[in-house]
Design a protein that fits this description.
- The chain is an alpha+beta fold and 140 residues long.
- It has a single domain (3-137), classed as CBS-domain (Roll), CATH 3.10.580.10.
- The chain is built from 7 helices and 7 strands, in the order H-E-H-E-E-H-H-E-E-H-E-E-H-H.
- Helix 5 packs parallel to helix 7 (125-137).
- It is globular, with a radius of gyration of 15 Å.
- The termini are far apart.
- This is CBS domain-containing protein.
- InterPro entries: CBS_dom, CBS_dom_sf, Diverse_CBS-Domain.
């Protein structure tokens, strides 16, 4: 099974200058927990709902009216290819202890995101249970 068979398609990135409040509204409207950040036609980071809370709201002096994606994003993106084997991508997610992985095509364009939910719906059960055990252990 390939990554493209399980991933969430139709994902766009947003500018690092977008307001954090706009990111939060997009997350609520689309019922998603992360938004990729792109600049100069390249994927440069990711903002998760957790980033907004931990790197934003929990910080002294954080001003939600002026904060941008760049202020709270996790820079340095790990990604996988749409043609990668799904098990390989899942192992990559396990190693990084992440729940979402951007997916690129051979032209380096982002074509989707692979999430824990996508994997659990599409992947063989044994692959899912191993992944869930490893990623969940990180959060105890």
């Amino acid at each position: 099974m390939k990554v493209k068979d399980a991933m969430h398609k139709g994902v766009d990135w947003v500018s690092p200058e977008i307001a954090v409040t706009e990111l939060a509204k997009m997350m609520r409207a689309q019922d998603i927990g992360s938004i990729p950040i792109g600049e100069n036609d390249r994927l440069i980071g990711m903002v998760t709902d957790r980033d907004i809370v931990c790197k934003g709201l929990a910080e002294d002096g954080f001003d939600s009216r002026t904060a941008t994606a760049r202020d709270v994003m996790t820079a340095g993106i790990h990604c996988c290819r749409e043609d990668d084997d799904l098990a390989k991508a899942v192992r990559h997610m396990e190693e990084l202890k992440i729940r979402r992985l951007p997916v690129i095509n051979k032209n380096m364009r982002m074509v989707g995101i692979l999430s824990v939910g996508d994997v659990s719906q599409s992947a063989p059960a044994e692959l899912v249970s191993e992944y869930v055990k490893k990623v969940s252990a990180h959060h105890h």
